[in-house]
Q: What sequence folds into this?
């Protein structure tokens, strides 16, 4: 038995290999982990306590695969609640977002187009998760959103928002008092952007089976950016943990928007690479 | 503490060197001083805050008979533009001890290894890319007699200055049949068979999905060599491996690679085919770019070295591709009418790569997370052309002092996939949205021998493209003054860029000095934005302008 030792080694290796394959029959867990409460809403005020993730879903009402991406957002929304801040931007190729007699609602906006142009949205559906990996691989397909969201959420928060919303119904003016404090030190320039989105709009949508759903409910539709598509710089040199930035924004709502369905979305981001440090959302009319 | 520890190791090591002269070292240092170039980078998006970026390494290897040990120190202050930004800081990233005695070859610490052509396991370093997935663990190689060779590996992979969380375990058995079957050798046949199995372990924390903690892959291979022919085949299979790369689908992966070559005096032929389906295999299912790849999927296209053709490199599509390559090299004999006094070399190479069939599942979904993803017919092509390349060259030596070579390239380059990184699932849902660029490029290269051992090499290149970068012309002159000094000047003029402000020159001047094992290169000029690939693995190169220095030496 010249090669007895080697034979034992072979058996050891083979035994290591055996049962090292987990074949999965049922990919989805039946009882996903319970939802954590990430924020406390006191009346008209949101006080964040945990990290949140911004998901920008570039979509179109004539894009047949876009409802699949919306489903992913719905699933994440039900799983993570306010830890996920979604926005559906109807922007990108006009053959998917344009208006015609079958799809008469114009969901597009100049600010949405500007954001899509910067991020090079050439096809739908595509998305951004926390605007990560710009400029090389920031466009994420909807199949990757869940895992990226999960990866982001397990990290400590870098900043936390406190938002107070009020609404003047006679003049249809929405007012937001915001305050954000850093929970980590940042070295790059920081920017704040404010967006308005609307949920619960019933309008036709092309479905994956090529049919038109006349009573499709469009949620999280990006409406406007009162501070401009990329907001404003709040610090040229970042800031230390504990540093606070605050301000007030007021904007009049378009007559066609339903204030009950409108929400503010605020983001604090790194101006050098657009990476979102923290997003937050609160109803225009809490 | 790390620098102090490192100094201690060096002092000890040099002490050993003084006694036994068995210490070897390779040292390399690269740096670039970046200059703000408002034409190349109008917004300053790529201009680094540091202005000067530098990186380097020193590899020390000590050998004493059948024992070997080594360490590699790396330093990134900070990493140069275009390299993965995870390389930041300094430290000892590679250290190992190895002993080869009797039938055993044992390595502990870091090591590089490959099973077969790498379809399920290849641990390697490609410094030009910033890729290093070195294993940190144990490797044991042993001979079982009768031509049987067994390898076992276990460990975790390098990820910049840390390690991936996944554990990689592998076994490879190779049988060189000629030792057991000597009659094959008598008939001029050399053959070998091999098989390997690799698995990774990574715990699942996903809140929604049941992800496999253990993912296994296996491969079978053969090599046959007979009268100038060499035929290698490898087939690999991987079980469900939902990952960021494949959109967390549960479809098993498959790969097949077959290469046939023939060579005899003056003639070489290569034919290769490959099909990959969902074969991204990393020790971290959430890994991106080229982090923590366990396997390597070789490209079936010829890497080009001429600058303009190299601007359109091919990157292997790990989620699925089918491709092939055919190449003939022929030397027209010396003394014939076409061969002339020194002979004439002809080369023809063609390669193509296409998407695989990815038909929707029964519920009309495709690529959806938590599903089998798609159905693929192995004999059916997908609708997306990734890349095609037909190139030919003729090279002739006119006299002892003049050599000339003419090369033509006809490329089809799917910019959306290869440059913008858009996946096939996205494109399949948006057919026709991709942008395929047609490129015709010509290169005329001459080499003159001058007096006193000097040589002058020139290149004239011209690339015509119907989009993306547009038309370009290039000239290069390289003057080898003597064995120690070489001076090179080149300029690429992108006169046909679709954006007028990008119709600019990219001049580069280089001075290279050789002194024994030491090579010093100084360069100054503009680097244009692009993609740099080695072996089908690519990284993005940002535009830059500045002065670069590179020093390499071995002791």
A:
């Amino acid at each position: 038995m010249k090669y007895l030792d080697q034979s034992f080694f072979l058996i050891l290796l083979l035994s290591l290999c055996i049962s090292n394959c987990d074949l999965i029959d049922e990919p989805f867990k039946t009882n996903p982990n319970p939802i954590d409460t990430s924020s406390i809403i006191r009346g008209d005020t949101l006080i964040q306590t945990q990290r949140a993730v911004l998901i920008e879903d570039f979509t179109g009402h004539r894009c047949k695969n876009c409802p699949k991406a919306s489903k992913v957002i719905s699933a994440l929304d039900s799983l993570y609640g306010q830890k996920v801040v979604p926005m559906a931007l109807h922007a990108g190729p006009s053959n998917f977002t344009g208006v015609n007699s079958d799809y008469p609602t114009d969901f597009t906006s100049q600010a949405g187009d500007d954001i899509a142009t910067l991020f090079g949205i050439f096809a739908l559906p595509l998305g951004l998760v926390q605007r990560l990996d710009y400029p090389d691989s920031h466009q994420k397909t909807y199949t990757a959103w869940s895992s990226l969201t999960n990866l982001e959420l397990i990290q400590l928060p870098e900043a936390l928002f406190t938002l107070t919303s009020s609404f003047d119904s006679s003049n249809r003016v929405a007012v937001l008092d915001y305050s954000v404090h850093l929970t980590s030190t940042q070295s790059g320039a920081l920017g704040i952007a404010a967006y308005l989105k609307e949920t619960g709009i019933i309008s036709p949508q092309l479905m994956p089976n090529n049919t038109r759903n006349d009573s499709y409910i469009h949620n999280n539709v990006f409406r406007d950016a009162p501070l401009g598509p990329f907001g404003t710089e709040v610090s040229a040199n970042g800031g230390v943990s504990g540093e606070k930035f605050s301000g007030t924004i007021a904007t009049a709502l378009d007559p066609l928007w339903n204030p009950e369905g409108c929400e503010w979305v605020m983001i604090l981001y790194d101006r050098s690479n657009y990476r979102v440090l923290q997003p937050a959302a609160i109803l225009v009319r809490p | 503490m790390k620098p102090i520890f490192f100094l201690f190791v060096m002092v000890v090591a040099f002490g050993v060197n003084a006694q036994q002269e068995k210490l070897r070292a390779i040292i390399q240092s690269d740096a670039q001083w970046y200059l703000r170039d408002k034409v190349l980078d109008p917004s300053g998006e790529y201009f680094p805050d540091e202005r000067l970026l530098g990186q380097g390494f020193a590899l020390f290897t000590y050998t004493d008979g059948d024992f070997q040990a080594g360490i590699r120190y790396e330093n990134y202050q900070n990493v140069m533009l275009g390299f993965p930004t995870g390389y930041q800081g300094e430290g000892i990233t590679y250290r190992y001890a190895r002993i080869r005695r009797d039938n055993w070859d044992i390595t502990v610490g870091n090591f590089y290894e490959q099973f077969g052509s790498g379809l399920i396991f290849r641990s390697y370093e490609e410094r030009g890319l910033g890729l290093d997935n070195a294993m940190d663990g144990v490797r044991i190689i042993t001979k079982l007699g009768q031509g049987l060779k067994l390898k076992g590996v276990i460990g975790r992979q390098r990820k910049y200055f840390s390690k991936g969380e996944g554990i990689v375990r592998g076994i490879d058995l190779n049988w060189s049949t000629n030792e057991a079957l000597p009659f094959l050798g008598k008939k001029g046949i050399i053959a070998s068979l091999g098989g390997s199995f690799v698995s990774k372990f990574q715990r699942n924390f996903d809140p929604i999905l049941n992800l496999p903690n253990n993912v296994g892959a296996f491969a079978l291979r053969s090599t046959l060599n007979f009268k100038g022919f060499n035929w290698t085949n490898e087939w690999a299979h991987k079980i469900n491996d939902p990952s960021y790369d494949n959109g967390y689908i549960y479809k098993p992966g498959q790969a097949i690679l077959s290469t046939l070559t023939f060579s005899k005096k003056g003639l070489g032929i290569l034919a290769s085919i490959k099909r990959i389906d969902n074969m991204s295999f990393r020790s971290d299912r959430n890994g991106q770019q080229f982090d923590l790849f366990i396997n390597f999927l070789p490209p079936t296209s010829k890497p080009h070295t001429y600058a303009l053709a190299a601007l359109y490199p091919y990157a292997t599509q790990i989620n699925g591709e089918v491709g092939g390559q055919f190449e003939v090299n022929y030397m027209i004999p010396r003394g014939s009418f076409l061969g002339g006094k020194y002979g004439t070399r002809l080369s023809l190479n063609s390669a193509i790569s296409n998407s695989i069939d990815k038909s929707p599942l029964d519920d009309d979904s495709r690529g959806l997370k938590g599903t089998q993803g798609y159905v693929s017919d192995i004999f059916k092509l997908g609708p997306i052309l990734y890349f095609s390349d037909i190139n030919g060259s003729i090279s002739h030596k006119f006299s002892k002092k003049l050599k000339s070579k003419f090369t033509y390239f006809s490329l089809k380059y799917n910019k959306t996939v290869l440059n913008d990184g858009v996946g096939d699932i996205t494109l399949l849902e948006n057919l026709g949205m991709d942008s395929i660029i047609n490129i015709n490029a010509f290169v005329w290269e001459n080499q003159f021998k001058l007096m006193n051992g000097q040589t002058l090499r020139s290149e004239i290149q011209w690339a015509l493209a119907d989009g993306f970068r547009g038309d370009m012309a290039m000239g290069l002159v390289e003057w080898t003054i003597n064995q120690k000094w070489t001076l090179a000047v080149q300029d690429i003029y992108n006169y046909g860029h679709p954006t007028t402000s990008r119709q600019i020159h990219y001049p580069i001047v280089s001075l290279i000095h050789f002194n024994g094992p030491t090579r010093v290169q100084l360069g100054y000029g503009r680097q244009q934005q692009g993609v740099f690939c080695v072996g089908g693995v690519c990284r993005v190169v940002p535009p830059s302008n500045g002065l670069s220095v590179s020093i390499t030496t071995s002791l």
Summary: The radius of gyration of chain A is 23 Å. Chain A touches chain B through 52 residues (CB under 8 Å). DSSP finds five helices and 17 strands in chain A.
